[in-house]
């Protein structure tokens, strides 16, 4: 494994120092079937799905070189995706180079990075996009010369060969349903401060729609909304703004970094009467649920999504791509269920650091 040069990546992201253990880990042997949901209409997240025991390839036919683009590495969610991709690339015997854009506002940077993938002669491109359709023109052109695989974030279908993801509407709905179950329609009203993520990012629109729809039949009402990038520092500022400017809400709901920051802020203020719900899982969110500080978070199994994206890329290169759109079934994790869900498919190991470049073994 080697590091890329400074010219290769404009921003290297944060090298996370993670510690602690995670209860209920279950290792799945490499090459064992993956339990997935397959969309009946590829590239349509609203289409019906059917379960599939998906058998991954045993090995790549050649040591292909993949190019991978992430929106950022600001939280451990994308670190977990990276772990899945690195493990699957090693298992299949392919190499990769990773670029990260440094955040969702950086569309121009991600376009430049996609062009760098072409210039480097990659065999396939895997993209976790910063924008639902901002990358469409360049990806449509790139798709004429190599397969383009969408990973995790929702994206316009033009130019996309395959998609490893879950519907983000369902991620938002899962967070909303966790609140609705606690506060059904007709019960005493409760207030919610909602932190959906960076305005303009494709996944934010969908997670917002799902969350609001799930709250419709409950007594929970959104009283404050704050958009912002999913870095912890930005989320701290947004939370503090809500707590200083308004009567305190009953719940803080939003991204993993928001939930992580909220635990610390509420502890410092001596307030344990405000509930916290995350709309996706990270290492710190896992710990927060385990300790009873966070009420719930859905897991979309980012490690497995990373594996699937790499496996799909190899299939696309080799003309073996049969399933074009699939992902794991979403599971909502609570303090009562946290020791029984598949944390190995969700969280990178505690000592894992980002892998930006890997040669075939």
Structure explained in plain terms:
It is a single chain. The protein is an alpha/beta fold and about 350 residues long. Helices cover about 30% and strands about 20% of the residues. It is built from nine helices and 15 strands. Strands 2-1-13-7-6-5-3-4-15 form a nine-stranded mixed β-sheet, sandwiched between helices. Helix 5 links the parallel strand 8 and strand 9.
Largest sheet: 9 strands, mixed
Kindly report the average pLDDT value.
Answer: 90
Taken as a percent bin, the fraction of beta residues is 15-25%
* Total number of helices: 9
H/E element string?
EEEHEHEHEEHEHEHEHEHEHEEE
Radius of gyration: 20 Å
Beta strands, count: 15
Proportion in helices: 25-40%
Question: Main sheet: which strands, in order across?
Answer: 2-1-13-7-6-5-3-4-15
Weakly predicted, low-confidence segments:
1-29
> What is the general shape?
globular
Q: Which class of secondary structure composition applies to the elements?
A: alpha/beta
Topology, please?
Elements: E1 34-39, E2 49-54, E3 65-70, H1 76-92, E4 95-100, H2 107-119, E5 124-127, H3 136-142, E6 148-151, E7 162-164, H4 168-182, E8 190-197, H5 202-215, E9 220-227, H6 232-245, E10 251-254, H7 256-268, E11 275-278, H8 283-290, E12 297-299, H9 302-317, E13 325-327, E14 331-333, E15 357-358
Parallel strand pairs: 3-4, 3-5, 5-6, 6-7, 7-13, 8-9, 8-10, 10-11
Antiparallel strand pairs: 1-2, 1-13, 4-15, 12-14
Helix pairs in contact: 1-9, 4-5, 6-7
């Amino acid at each position: 494994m080697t590091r890329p040069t400074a010219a290769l990546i404009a921003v290297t992201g944060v090298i996370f120092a993670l510690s602690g253990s995670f209860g209920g880990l279950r290792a799945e042997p490499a090459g064992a079937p993956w339990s997935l949901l397959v969309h009946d209409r590829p590239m349509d997240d609203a289409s019906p799905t059917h379960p599939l025991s998906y058998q991954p390839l045993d090995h790549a036919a050649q040591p292909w070189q993949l190019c991978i683009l992430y929106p950022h590495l600001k939280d451990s969610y994308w670190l977990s995706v990276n772990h899945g991709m690195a493990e699957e690339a090693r298992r299949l015997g392919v190499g990769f180079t990773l670029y990260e854009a440094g955040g969702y506002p950086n569309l121009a940077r991600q376009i430049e990075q996609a062009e760098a993938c072409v210039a480097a002669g990659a065999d396939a491109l895997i993209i976790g996009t910063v924008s639902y359709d901002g990358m469409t023109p360049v990806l449509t052109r790139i798709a004429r010369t190599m397969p383009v695989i969408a990973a995790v974030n929702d994206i316009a279908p033009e130019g996309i060969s395959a998609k490893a993801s879950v519907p983000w509407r369902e991620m938002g709905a899962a967070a909303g349903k966790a609140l609705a179950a606690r506060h059904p329609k007709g019960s005493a009203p409760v207030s919610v401060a909602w932190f959906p993520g960076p305005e303009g990012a494709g996944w934010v629109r969908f997670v917002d729609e799902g969350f609001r729809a799930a709250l419709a039949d409950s007594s929970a009402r959104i009283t404050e909304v704050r958009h912002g990038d999913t870095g912890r520092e930005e989320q701290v500022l947004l939370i503090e703004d809500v707590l200083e400017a308004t009567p305190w809400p009953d719940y803080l709901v939003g991204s993993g970094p928001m939930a992580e920051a909220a635990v610390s802020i509420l502890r410092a203020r001596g307030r344990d009467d405000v509930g916290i719900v995350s709309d996706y899982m990270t290492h710190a969110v896992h710990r927060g649920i385990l300790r009873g500080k966070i009420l719930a978070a859905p897991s979309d199994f980012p490690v497995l999504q990373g594996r699937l994206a790499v496996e799909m890329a190899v299939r696309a290169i080799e003309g073996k791509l049969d399933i074009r759109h699939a992902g794991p079934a979403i599971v909502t994790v609570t303090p009562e269920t946290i020791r029984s869900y598949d944390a190995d498919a969700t969280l990178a190991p505690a000592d894992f650091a980002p892998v930006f470049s890997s040669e075939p073994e």
